Amino acid sequence: MRNWVLITGCSTGIGRALVPLCRASGWGVVATARNIADLADLTPGEDLRILPLDVTNPATIASAAAACADLHLQALVNNAGYGQVGPLELLRPEELRAQFETNVIGLHTVTNAFLPLLRRAPGARILQVASMLGRLSIPLAGPYNASKHAVVALAESLRLEVGREVAVVLVEPGAIRTAFRDTLSKAWGDLPERARGTRYETVIARYMAKRKDQAERFAMDAGTCARRMLRALNAKHPPRRLVIGRDAFWAGKLKALLPAAWWESLLRRAYGLD
User: pTM for this one?
Assistant: First the structure.
């Protein structure tokens, strides 16, 4: 019987990179996205199902779960998400709410919808994709930081509750060179206008000018991250925590070792807030 994995957020980035890797490794893949037209270029086959799934829409989640009832679902990868950015004092409540609806509430809703199917498969596992920003925080990304801290907390609690039946793997990547970062400027919305005349005007302009260049120079590609995640999917005893990327590893070490005042000063200088 073929083992199947359902992956959310397959239109770009890590989710898209995982699809062919999992298929090549023998998995059947249920590839999902809000708009399935984004998945039209995936090679068809008996080992692939394409389903619409919007993590903020419970009806599409329930429909996807029903469509997988006949499968031997061995794994779930909660990968869908986006990054809302901007200074907290300029952030609108609806922007923070939308960030949590996708990154936290959506992840939780998908997890609960597929848990009954996963419980049927011995050795099943859930990969909850957080971020290195689920363990530390940076300026101008408060909503994203908060949502990923919440994902970490939910994953650790879920592991305590169901971990003897279904393994829960917390995935904490560093910077990824994907279209995720290209959407950051869209996530600003009208924030540059809101920031005009405030102390953040020059900070935001500098951030927008440098972010893409920094991502190209220092971020890992989505395929590298996906290959590490595939190992966790294939492992007989999957890890509890999967830190991916040198930046994720060393940022965590630095934060733990440096005095808090030094760490905060370092970040303020890096983001032009000194």
Answer: 0.93
